[in-house]
Amino acid sequence: MPQMNMVQAINDGLRLEMRRDPRVVLMGEDIGKVGGVFRVTAGLYDEFGDDRVIDTPLSEGGIVGTAIGMALYGLVPVPEIQFADFIYPAYDQIVSELAKLRYRSGGEYPAKLVIRTPVGGGIRGGHYHSQSPEAIFVHTPGLKVVCPSNPYDAKGLLLASLRDPDPVLFFEPKRIYRAAKGDVPEDDYTVPLSKASVVREGGHVTVLAWGAMLYEALEAANQAGAQGVECEVLDLRTLWPLDIDAVVASVKKTGRVVVVHEAPRTCGFGSEIIALINEKAFVYLEAPPARVTGFDTPFPYTLEMEYLPLAHRILPAIVDTARY
Amino acid sequence: MTLAAVIPTKHHRNPNDVLAPGVIRAMRDDGTVDSAHDPGISDAELVSLYTAMVRVRILDDRLVSLQRQGRIGFHIGSIGEEAAILGSAFAMRKKDWIFPCYREFGAALWRGFPLQRYIDNMFGNANDSAKGRQMPDHYTAREAHFGSISSPVGTQITQAVGFAWAAKLQHDDAVVIVYFGDGATSSNDFHHGMNFAGVFKTPTIFFCRNNGWAISVPTERQTASASFAEKGVAYGVPSLRCDGNDLLAVISATREALDRALRGDGPTLIEAITYRLSGHSTSDDPKAYRQEDEVEEWRRRDPIARLRRLLSARGLYTDADQAKAEAAMQEEIKRAIVAAESAPLPALQSMFDDVYAETPWHLREQCEYLLRSPRPTKR
Predict the structure, then answer these.
(1) Rounded to an integer, what is the distance from CA B237 to the centroid of its chain?
(2) Domain segments of chain B: what residues?
(3) Which residue from A130, B23, B174, B361 has the highest number of Cβ atoms inside 10 Å of its Cβ?
(4) Looking at this predicted complex, what is its ipTM?
(5) Which residues of chain B does A97 touch, with a Cβ-Cβ cutoff of 8 Å?
(6) For the domain A3-183, what is the CATH superfamily, name and number?
(7) In this structure, how many other beta carbons lie within 10 angstroms of the beta carbon of residue A228?
(8) Is A73 touching B (CB cutoff 8 A)?
């Protein structure tokens, strides 16, 4: 089984599905001849040509708007937004149109597409190449939101997203595009949506994370283990619809929970997760649920390692929660 | 008739001047037709289009009065724009697709969307194709190749381009006509859509109903251009201007655009110069923002009266025909209203359907919660 990084695994998934399903069309800025600014679509233009790997004008609203039209026709477009920070010109099409089409048409006009976009900080990208806007899409009824943390899941979740009947925002954590490596089968497989994975078992504190921050959560969990605090770390993988059963089962087991995310704290996805835990597992809680997150500031450049919820900030939250 | 005609001269800088050079007109006031722009349609088709336009006008009047009586919440109509809507819809083939704005119920009905379904939508009842989830005039009619209606202005434009682009990629010769008003030419999606259509030569007909007003904002506040058609020049999209109250000119212009698309020459922007004789919707009173003499001038160009003069000149239609047709329409509409008003409302659970293909856990929980909650006492 070959070793792949995230970029290679997503590329492999796209290639596999494009060979299998002629309806799949890629579109975006610089995705064709150059293969994307992160090279995720490298080589696909050569194999599938200009009609299926389409370099578009520099217009996110145009990319997503026309992709929705293609989806209404019956294709499965996979628009790439070069950075999630640039998704806002397409926000109206995503929120007012894509998310509502099935509902507002009484089921007559579902629009199936997967929007891929690199997300997150830690690459010295400043305000506009670093943000994590997942919560605003979780907040929009009709969308599914996915964020893989490793190459195996990236390919399997991408194939599941492409074959799911609903529109999916597929957030690719760019900090680990090349750093995360692992065995990836070359053949066809899916990782089911809305299923979290338990990546470390433990009985004292539940740590919930996704994307690039999963590795920070694991690092902190290992350090906590040296202090006698055993963490159970869950990789949520699909943010929405959330695998609520896995979250509640772990919290019932540990009675303590720490949620980690890069996005700003206020109304971040952690807020909703903790509200759900309070509703569904309140009597099991032994300590207040804790959040380790980005701050309620724009994403900073020079001080980005201070902004990110890295292991050094997660560890004290775990220890405090364990000893509460 | 194409690009040269839309380049402004110092003598005509008013986008609403329907008599400006280069604007396609076919029907003369005396009921005769300029053979250069006569689409040559049969007498039976002319009568059929005329009665369709009358039916739309009667519906508009009836729905406004239903709203005034408080029986429906809203209506957004097309009084004065019937020729622009029916003529363009008529010119398209059955296999082509319509991406509507919210003012084209005449086109949906022309393509076979049942009157009863349309009226069901006005009441948001259980038989409404949008299942009571949207305001009146936001129905959906996929069987009629008629898109889902949205309220945000312009969003259908890029989607129409994508749909046409997909058809082209699939070697399907379907063409898409997308409707929007002059206000929408200021929206993001107009520019995105025109640009993509120009670059990828998609078989899209951009049909701009320049009706002079975007709610209370007049054309001169919408653009400094001398016409909306000239906006096509910058995108490499050829443009046509036509008298939007001249059914035959609209048909000729749309056919020319359709032929271009079918030849593989890509998109066309049609600016149909017309006038919104009513308010924007039942929610505004146009007397607050425009002069009655301007409206009077356009009433004299009423597209239905103009077509009637042509039919009369050709001896195709009499006052007795009109009275009989109108009585039948009133009866048909009345029956549809009675049926729609007495139909059940959508089931409570249906609020949670179609958000996703399969209802996820959180919506199942919220549905169960709603079902065991008290029902609202406020209406």
Answers:
(1) 21
(2) 3-346, 349-379
(3) A130
(4) 0.97
(5) 150, 152, 155, 159
(6) Thiamin diphosphate (ThDP)-binding fold, Pyr/PP domains (3.40.50.970)
(7) 9
(8) yes
